[in-house]
Amino acid sequence: MATRDQSYKAGETKGQTQEKTGQVMEGMKDKAEFAKDKTYETAQAAKDKVSGATQATKEKSTDTAQAAKDKASGATQATKEKTSDTAQAAKDKTHDTSRAAGDRAHETKQNAGGYMDTAKEKVSETAQAARDTAVAGKDKAGNIVGATVEQVKSAAAGAADAVKNTFGMSGDTTNQQGDYNRRD
């Protein structure tokens, strides 16, 4: 059996062990509490950091979206203005071209009218000259025909007289030789 001294030492060791276990337990408890608090603080800091990053990202996205919207709106407005300016320039150019074409057509019409008047005048002058030439030709032809008819009549009368004289049928007995150039 164990002796008293051994029992005492065993009790003393037991007490020391319990005290040491209590101290270790208290130290572990303090360390666990410290670790818990440190973990909570770290988690809270991470949460705050993520929340801040989320807020910054949200603000940056909003700013970027607004800038893109403003830029698109500005580009749309610039495109509208450019399109409007281009359309107006085309409209003005078409109007100017149309006006110039109208003026040119009017000028051409006036020039053509002047040419037509000149052409009518030339045709009239040519027709009058042709009439004058025709009248002169008619008169000359009439004179030639008239003279020719007279010559033929005279020649026929002369031939008739000659034939009558030859056959003695002439009513004029004094002129036996006949006058071939006589005109009746």
TrEMBL record:
<dbReference type="GO" id="GO:0005634">
    <property type="term" value="C:nucleus"/>
</dbReference>
<protein>
    <submittedName>
        <fullName>Uncharacterized protein</fullName>
    </submittedName>
</protein>
<feature type="compositionally biased region" description="Polar residues">
    <location>
        <begin position="167"/>
        <end position="184"/>
    </location>
</feature>
<feature type="region of interest" description="Disordered">
    <location>
        <begin position="165"/>
        <end position="184"/>
    </location>
</feature>
<feature type="compositionally biased region" description="Basic and acidic residues">
    <location>
        <begin position="27"/>
        <end position="50"/>
    </location>
</feature>
<feature type="compositionally biased region" description="Basic and acidic residues">
    <location>
        <begin position="79"/>
        <end position="109"/>
    </location>
</feature>
<feature type="compositionally biased region" description="Basic and acidic residues">
    <location>
        <begin position="57"/>
        <end position="72"/>
    </location>
</feature>
<feature type="region of interest" description="Disordered">
    <location>
        <begin position="1"/>
        <end position="140"/>
    </location>
</feature>
